Amino acid sequence: MNKITLKLGLWFFFVMLMIQVCLFFVLHTGLVESRVEEELDALLARGNSHREVLEDSFHAETLHHIALMELKADTEVIITDDAQKILISSSKVDAGEKKIVSKKLKDIPRGGMILESRWKNEKYISTVSPYTAGENQSGYVYMFKSTDQIQQLISKLNQHLLFAAAVMFILLIITNLFLSKALTTPLIQMKQATEKLSKGDFSVQLPDRGDDELGELSRSITILAQDLKRLKEQRNEFLSSISHELRTPLTYIKGYADVARRKSIEEADREHYLQIIYEESERLSAMMKDLFDLAKLDRHAFIIQRTNIHLSSYLATVYEKMMPAFQEKEIRLDMNCDETLYVMVDPVRFEQILFNLLDNAIKYSDPHTKTSVIAQQEKGEVFIAIRDEGAGIPQEDLPFVFDRFYRVDKSRSRHLGGTGLGLSIVKELVEAHGGRIEVKSERNKGTAFVIWLKEEKE
User: Fold this and answer.
1) Distance, CA of 133 to chain centre
2) Are 173 and 51 spatial neighbours (Cβ–Cβ below 8 Å)?
3) What does the pLDDT average to over 308-323?
4) CA distance 402 to 425
5) pLDDT tens for residues 239-281?
6) Sign of the torsion angle spanned by Cα atoms 382, 386, 387, 392
7) Is the dihedral angle over the CA atoms 58, 59, 63, 69 positive or is it negative?
8) Which residue has better confidence, 372 or 152?
9) Hey, which residues does 344 pair with through a beta bridge?
10) Maximum separation of any 2 CA atoms in the chain, in Å
11) Overall average pLDDT of the 308-329 stretch
């Protein structure tokens, strides 16, 4: 048996055992007291009944009849006069009864009273009822019941309670075994799952255990395992992509450097090779810068200094900077921005976002197409949409466009340039501004990137 099962089982067993002991003690005490009280009430009622008979007809025959009735019952009766002198009794009066009858009586109520109720230590329990038969005759009706009979009743009651306690004890043990097993089994499975996770084994799949806390914990561990597995795969893919991306420019640089060093080549060819080396060095430098930016973003070390800017004026500046690149490729660039919009952004970092998205529009759009930048307010938020009429992105690629080194162009054609990190940086920067970015695209009809930001007042 596992330690947690044993501990939980023992703890639950002792707690439930103490609860049951307390409950049985209260139940036993209550039942005993209730049973004794019933006997005393019945005894007093019987004495009052004899009193009524005496008051209706006080004769020697009546006294004899009452004594005869009690002789055949499990109770006894003693009838006395006003001086407590015994007139008649249903059986021979013993010392215990004499002791009770000899007690001085004062202010006995009409309904009678209990004289002795100590059933544990005395031989009898007893009641007394006063009677008045005419002007010259009065006295008392004493009723007695042996405590041996009470003890027998209590003994039978104890036997029944002990039997019930034994059954409850057995049921408690069985319930405890099943319950502790039911509670600890998922905990043990979760412990084993976390041990597998700590060893790098992410193939963890815990069963669904409902909507309670254990079920939520089980699902959380399963989700954690899936996330860790995905992160491991992404890390491996990331390292593989870095290796590929770095190896390609380094291979070009080394290869063309070896060729350029040859003394036998023409000067024009040497210049051409040196130009390729320069371009690959620039590409490698841009990639390293992007990687450093992503590393800073991952460590939350990327400083965002936001300020409240007038969006229309800001986008006009971006428009002027990007316009020559669009004109060179003969792509029309339109801009439409609400003049009343203000947003809280880092001007430098947000410009990096827009340049990256506009640069993608240039790369993937044909001449004589149009790219639009639209900024409007909607439900307390500002959205900035950059739409082009380029090649578009296949639907199966849309969920991954913000992944690092992911390229829609699987051939990784070099004429489009880029490091495969631009959109990852864009997403990280947008989220660092407290916003979100969405992408919509249709093949051969164009792509739209939409940035959502919180609107600020002037």
Assistant:
1) 79
2) no
3) 92
4) 8
5) 666 676 677 678 878 888 888 888 888 888 888 888 888 877 8
6) negative
7) negative
8) 372
9) 308
10) 160
11) 92
Task: Walk me through the domains of the chain, giving residue ranges and CATH numbers.
Answer: 3-153 (3.30.450), 213-298 (1.10.287.130), 307-456 (3.30.565.10)
pLDDT at 405: 66
H-helix or E-strand spanning residue 213: helix 213-260
Give the helix, strand, coil percentages of the chain, each rounded to 5: 55, 20, 25
Rounded to the nearest 5°, which phi and psi values hold at 456? -115, 155
Whether the CB-CB separation of 83 and 147 falls below 8 Å is answered with no
Cα–Cα distance between 62 and 68 in angstroms, integer?
A: 10
Kindly report whether the global pTM for this prediction surpasses the value 0.90: no
Going by C-beta distance under 8 Å and a sequence separation of 6 or more, which residues neighbour residue 195?
none
* Range list of H helices, 57-91: 60-71
At 73, the amino acid letter reads A
Which residues are bridge partners to 146 per DSSP?
124
In angstroms, the CA 1 to CA 3 distance is 7
Amino acid identity for residue 38 in this structure: E
Say how many CA atoms lie within 13 Å of 86 toward its Cβ.
18
Torsion sign over Cα 327, 329, 330, 335: negative
Q: Give the Cα separation of 115 and 126 in Å (integer).
A: 5
* pLDDT for residue 209: 66
| Neighbouring-strand partners of residue 442 | 446
Nearest of 92, 80, 179, 182 to residue 139 by alpha carbon = 80
